[in-house]
Amino acid sequence: MAGPALKRTIRVLILALLAPHATASTSSVLGSTDAQRCFQESQVVVSMQGIRYCDNAIKEGELTRRDLAATYSNRGLIYAGNGELEQALADQNRAIEILPTMPQAYINRGNVYHHMKRYEDALADYRRAIALESGPRHVPYYNSGLTLLKMKRMDEAMTAFQKALEFSPGSRTIRDKIDSWSGRKGRGRKARRKAKRIEPGMLTRSSESPVPHCGPVFP
To answer: Distances from the Cα of 160 to the Cαs of 21, 132, 141, 165, 217, in angstroms?
Structure first.
C-alpha cells in the first residue's frame, strides 16, 4: 500500500479518453451511468470512490468492446492516482488486451511504468501510442521527454519536447518546459566556464530533478 506522500505525488500524466474522437462519442462510450461516473472520477482523482462505478460498469456486461477497454483504462487511472500501481498496471494491460489499437491505454500504461521507474518500458509504450497515429499526439512525445529527463538523456528529451510542440504549438506547458531546460543548459555552460577559471572541481551538480506532470496537462 502506498503511503500518503506517494498518493499526493503520483498522478497519471494524462487522463484517458480526452481525445477529440472520444469526446464526440461520449453518448455511446458512456451509455452506462456507472461507466460515465467512472470516467468522471478518473478525470480528477481524489479517492478510491470511483472504483465502484467502474466495477459496476464492467460487471453489467452491456458495454461495447471499446467502452469496456476505456472503462478498464479509466479504472486504472483511479488506482494510479491512489498509488496502487500494480492494480493500475493490471487494468491498463486488460484495456490493451481488449483493444490494442487504443493509444490512450498505452499512454496510461506508460505513465504507470514511469512511476515504477521502469523507464524503458514507459518509452516503449509511448512509442506504441505514437505509432498508432491517433489520439492526443503531443502527449506521448511530452511524456517521453519527461521520462528521458529522468534517464539523463537530455538531448533526446529536448527533441521529444520539440516534437510535442509541433503537435500542440499553443501549449504553454510544453513551451515552458523547453524554455526551462534550455535555460538550465545555458546556465550550466556558463557555470562550467566560471569553474574552470576559478578552480577545478568547484562546480557542484544540482540535485534538482524534474517532477512528472500531474493531472490533465492540456485543455
So the answer is: 24, 17, 5, 9, 16
* 165 pLDDT higher than 50: yes
- Residue 205: pLDDT over 80: no
pTM of the prediction? Answer: 0.72
Which residues make Cβ contacts (< 8 Å) with residue 93, sequence separation at least 6?
Answer: 109
Cα torsion 97, 161, 45, 121: sign: positive
Residues 133-158 pLDDT 10s:
887 889 999 999 999 999 999 999 99
For domain 1-121, give the CATH number: 1.25.40
Distances, alpha carbon 16 to alpha carbons 30, 111, 134, 176, in Å: 13, 11, 13, 24
Question: Count of alpha carbons within 13 Å of 112, Cβ hemisphere only?
Answer: 28
Which candidate, 59, 101, 60, 94, places its Cα nearest to that of 76? 94
Query: Where do the structural domains in the chain lie, given as residue ranges?
Result: 1-121, 137-188
DSSP 46-87: -SSTTHHHHHHHHHH--S-HHHHHHHHHHHHHHHHHTT-HHH
Distance in Å from the first CA to the final CA of the chain: 32
Look up residue 144 and give its three cell numbers. 517521453
Burial class (CB in 10 A: 0-12, 13-18, 19+), 27: exposed
